[in-house]
Amino acid sequence: VLRLCLAKRWRVNYGAHPKRKNYQMAVPFQAKDVAAERTECGHPDVGIALTFVHYFQAGLSKQQLRNTFEKLKHLSDSKAKATYREWVACLSETQRSGIGSLDGVNLEDPNQFTHKVFPAFHRHMDVICFWLLKLILSVQAKQFSKKLLSTASDMCRSQDLCPHWRAVTTGFSGTDDLSLVLPPTIQQKNIKELELTNGVQLMRILKAENNNYHSLLPIENGSSFTNQILEFLNTPNCVKENTNVVLDAGALVLNMGNREFVSTWLKLRPDMQAGVFFEGNNICVITLDMSEDDKSLPLGVSSFANDMSSCLLYLDDIHTRGSDFKLPLHTRALLTLGKGLPKDKFCQAGMRMRQLGLGQSLVFVASPEVDQILKKDFFTCDNNASKLYMSNEVMRSFHYGIAKVHAILIWTLSNTVKKICDLIPYFVSQFICTLHKASAYNKLVSNKSDPFDKFTVKNLAISYVEEEVLELHKLYGHSRGIDNLPSIVYTMLKRSLNSDNLVVHDLVGDTRGFNITTDSIEKMPMSATEQPDSDLKFLNFFSTEIQSRVKRIAAEVHRPCSMLDEEQERELEHELEEEMHVELPGPAKPLEPHVSEGLIEVLKSCSRSGLCPLLCKRHLAPLSDIFSKTSFAQTGKQHFNGGMVFVTQDFVLTVEGKQGLDNYVKDIRWIIKPRSANGKGDGPFILISNFEAEYYARMLNRMIFNRRKKSVDISGILALYYFAPLTRLQQPRQFLTISSFDPPPIIHVLGGSVHADNELQEVIQRFLGICPYPGDCGEGDEKWNEYFSKGWIERDGFVPDRTKRTVLSKLFPIMTGSNEKWNEYFSKGWIERDGFVPVLSKLFPIMTGSNDVNICPFTSSPVEFLIKFLCNVRYLGEELSSSKMGKLLGSSEIETFKKVEDLA
């Protein structure tokens, strides 16, 4: 996919459609700056890749950039600021001045937006990626489950293929070169009077006066192709030879529009009075005295309509075919040669000079890429490629000074051959679709019952539609190598037509011509596996003839086994929308807040901290009860069943209802725990509601007041703490230095502390039992991949109990970037020489934690559960994508494991 996309020319083969307002993805182009109407890339990954490449080169418009900043400011504050800091990190000091922070960007200030914001960001790759991912691809890169195809083969119906079809195509427009990939059901029959046209064109082009060739310099070694062409046109020789016409068949004039190019050229030629060019489909004229703001004149109403001797003419890529001008007899035209220029387009462009060979002549200008190919394979007699393409007569022409025009013509022929070979798989694929339709229609008509009953017609419709959304193994499960075209076609027919009981013939060594007649079908021998049905006989014959044609014209041609360059015109059927009145459930009925009886019992009896765990287990609920009436009930109980964290009944119950209460899980704000000298303690930790916290706060106030009057011992009472989850970047963990404490990691995880600092992040990482991918492109990555291949680490980084000691001990020095700690623990006997940890409970505190609340309790990976919980219950989806917690869980957009200070 990448090679195909990079081989295409921007603004020539693909680009954004300038007139489709609601579609900003890249589409195929017919010619330079001419998009194919209603056409899209058939392969989804090709379309997405070309879209990125287009905007990386073209940049964003002012409105697109404005929409990007509006979308950015709709994100959460920390997410938006973190994203903007990444954008400005690669700007220079001059560019960053005045807009170094998001708060300094004022979209309402047109002067700042035009002179500071737009120049700094409209080509910024991160900004473009943000715009595409957030605003474009999520809406426009869509597929439907089914599609109904209509191809060229459907237009060329044949009664030989389906006796019940009526042939509707009687003629078409095209060139002889592509007749080999016409549908097999139609034959090209040229008008006898025009059979000599191709030969006459070639004779005129091959004349000696056209043996003029010039190559351009690479852009990195000189100016743009456009400027080089203008410089060449202004040389004395070109002026003397009346080189007044540019036929841009190779699409080399990319840096200027048609009018700008003609205006610049006209300034270099003061001896000419006017310049003629196409503006859309209108032929326009500008004169030397016109300014850029003046409107151009239609050629038909100007004084130059009947006499163009004093005019310069520029024909862009799309108009080098189908246009006609009365040019002076001794005019010479510059014809550009671009990558992949086929023979028919080359001849048509050259014949814009109607008197070519009778006084008019050509000079060829090639791009550096084409010049390299011509010099390597076509301009040298001794080259094997030259001998392959050139006949003896052409080889002898080198001695008569007309070899270059011969070589250029043969180069265009080689491009035509390549184009035909590239089209063969698509020609076969389209006809396979028609064969499927013919087989389905024959079955419908041959049905003995009513062929147009609802059930039968439904089956016909099912047979006609195809899958549009393909699984990855269907897109990329094919062979990655190359094969010869007959083998590729044979495989395509065998895979696609066997479903209809069609016989696919192996035509190894068969080089029959392609000539379909009813007599030839009747004479076709039937194999033992064929059925005597006439429609099946026709289908088998056509599939055989397709293979015969491919074998005859491309027996030794090799191509990739994939079809990535497919194009399609999508037409959506506007159906009547069914109006539905959706009755949303009524508002939930809140429960009356109350102080839980279990909490009262604990507060009354818990005078000594040693009794608290027993009292909590007897009177309070385990932490897993907060999931009891949610969609996480089963997984929540599995992961968080046990421990030293308890909840009250009022904390669990919020509204009436039995199930589906995901939106009513209370935030963790108030915690009760026994007092301890160092403020850390092992728990228990009691999560209470706001109402209960208010009740207990009043109780504490009364006790403190009574203590002042009387000598009352309050050392045994439980302490009340406020908890604030770290949901914002750089939010301090302990903002109350006197009364704050370190809650266990399970409270931070379920509370939503996605922006933990480095110290807390390590504690959470050990608690979850996750060993993230180091991403250091060194020893850490190698070890991680090794342990993953051995099954010691799961795909999301979770380390099972059976391998936890081995993995953590061996990856610890790599993750910390130093062996000092490892050596320290080895000297204490906590780690053996080979890295084995004999007893997990004795493992150094920095890895497992000294407290039970910090040891990983999970027997299976909690990653998927936590992502859903934090996004759907805590509503931290946007914050998660830009946080270190999101990186740890595998849902972050941060590319590397950055420190919090680096994001500041």
Automatic annotation (TrEMBL):
Residues in DUF3645 domain copies: 17-51
InterPro entries from the UniProt entry: DUF3645, OTU_Deubiquitinase
Catalyses which reaction(s): Thiol-dependent hydrolysis of ester, thioester, amide, peptide and isopeptide bonds formed by the C-terminal Gly of ubiquitin (a 76-residue protein attached to proteins as an intracellular targeting signal)
Gene Ontology molecular function terms on file: cysteine-type deubiquitinase activity
A Pfam family reported for this protein in Swiss-Prot or TrEMBL: DUF3645
GO aspect biological process, one term: proteolysis
Entry EC no(s): 3.4.19.12
Keyword Repeat belongs to the record: no
Enzyme type, top EC level: hydrolase
Key words of the record: Hydrolase, Protease, Thiol protease, Ubl conjugation pathway
Domain of life: Eukaryota
Protein name per UniProt: ubiquitinyl hydrolase 1
